[in-house]
Amino acid sequence: MSLTWQIDNYPGFENGIDGFSLAEKMQKQAEKFGAKSEYAEVFNMDLTGKLKRVETSSGIYIGKTVVIATGANPRKLGLAKEKELIGHGVAYCASCDGMFYKDKIVVVVGGGNSAVSDAFNKNVLATNPAKGINLPKKIKKTEYRVLKIDEKKTLTLPQVLRLIEASKETPIHMQILFAVLMGLRRSEINGLKYSDVDYIHRMLRVERQLGKKPNSKAEDCAPKMLTKQEIKTKTPAGVRELPIPDYVFEAILEERKTYEKNRRRRPKEFRDWNYICCSTYGNPRSKGFHQKYYKDLLKSLDLPDIHFHQLRNTYATILLKNSFNSKGVSHLLGHAKEIISVDVYGDTQEIIEDCLDILEPFIEEVIPKERKDQYYDYSEVIEIDLILEEYFNAA
C-alpha cells in the first residue's frame, strides 16, 4: 500500500490519497489512542511462554501477544527502469491501482488473471477496468491422451440387462454391477470395503486396489495374499468418490447381510477384513476369480466374447451416448488427463446417435452439472439403473 501513489477506494478521502500518507495517518490515529511506535531491528524472539520476549536493537520487549506483520514483496521482472516506474505505469495491486487503467490496454505478467479477478470477485472493482489484455507469455495447453473405445467391443443396453439378471445366480454378481453400472476397474472392485460406503449420502469412495507390491515375497504376506495386497490406485485421479446407483446400493446391503451371516457361522476362521467382494471365509477375491464365471455367462447368453475390462468401456459408452459430459465420464472412471472417445463404426471418433429413442427423455437428467471451480456435482444425477429400469418398462 505504501508504494501506491493514488488510492481512490478508501472511504473518507473524496480526492484520493497516496498510500504512504494513508499509512502515516493510520499510525498517528493509533498513537492518539495510546499506541507507541518504536523503530528497531529484531534480533531474536521467544514465543514459547505465556509472556513473549522480543530482542531488538533498542532493547528487549515483553508482552502477552506478538503480531508479526512483515508485509509482502511482489516478484519483480528485473526490467530496466522498473523501480522508477512503480506507481507510474507499473503496479502490483489490482485493488489499489486497477481503476487507473480503465479503457486502456494492459499487460498481465504472471500465472493468469488472478489479480483482476480477485478485485472483481470481492466487489472492489465494479467491472473489469481493462479494455484488453496482451499476454506476454505462451499459454501451455494441457496435453491429454485419448482413451479410444471401440463400441463393437462393448455391450448394448439390452445385453447389459441380460448379463446383470443372469449374474445374480453367480458369485460375481457384485463385480458385474461395479464394472458395468459404476465403471470400476477389476482391481478396484476387489479392493472395495464396506467402510468405503457412505450409507447416508449413497456415495462410494475408491481409494485402493488389490495387487502385488513391488519386490514383495510370499513370506511377507498373510497366506495366499501375495497378489491380493492393498496398493494405491493406478493414478492419483483414481482416488475418487462416486454416486452409488440405487440398484447397486440395494445389492450392497444384501451382500452385507451375507457377509455378516458368514462371519457368525465361522467366528474363528472368518477373516473380518470388510471386503465387499469376498469368499465365505472373508478372503478377498483374486484377480482371476471372475474369469470362468464371466466367460460362462457370456456363452450361455450368447453375448459377444469381450474382456471383463470392456464392461467398464460399456459403462462409459452408455453415458457418452446419452450426452453425459465427457470430462464427467473421465472423472467417474478415474482418468486425470484422458479424453474419451467412442469409435462407433471403426472409422470415426465421434459418437453417432442411434437407437436412443427410448432413452431420449432421460438425456437432460443424465447430463452432469459443472461447477465454476471445474468440479462436478453428481448430487442431482439420475443414476444409470434408472435408465435401465425405464428401458425395461418401455420395452
Q: What features would you describe in this structure?
A:
The protein has twelve helices and 14 strands. It has 395 residues and is α+β, with helices and mostly antiparallel strands. Strands 1-2-3 form a three-stranded antiparallel β-sheet, with no helix packed on it. α4 (157-167) runs antiparallel to α5 (173-182) and α5 (173-182) runs parallel beside α9. The chain starts with 18 loop residues before the first helix and ends with a helix. Mean pLDDT is 77; it is low at 341-383.
| Count of extended strands | 14
The main pleated sheet reads as: 3 strands, antiparallel
How many DSSP helices?
A: 12
Portion in strands? 5-15%
| Approximate shape | elongated
CA distance, first residue to last residue:
70 Å
For the structure shown, list the relevant keywords.
3-stranded antiparallel beta sheet; 395 residues; 12 helices; elongated; alpha+beta; 14 strands
Q: Layout of SSEs?
A:
Blueprint: H1 19-32, E1 42-46, E2 52-56, E3 59-63, H2 94-97, E4 105-107, H3 114-121, E5 132-134, E6 145-150, H4 157-167, H5 173-182, H6 186-190, E7 197-198, E8 203-206, E9 209-211, E10 229-231, E11 240-243, H7 246-265, H8 290-300, H9 309-321, H10 326-333, E12 338-343, H11 363-366, E13 369-370, E14 376-377, H12 384-394
Parallel strand pairs: 4-5, 6-12
Antiparallel strand pairs: 1-2, 2-3, 7-8, 8-11, 9-10, 13-14
Helix pairs in contact: 4-5, 5-7, 5-9
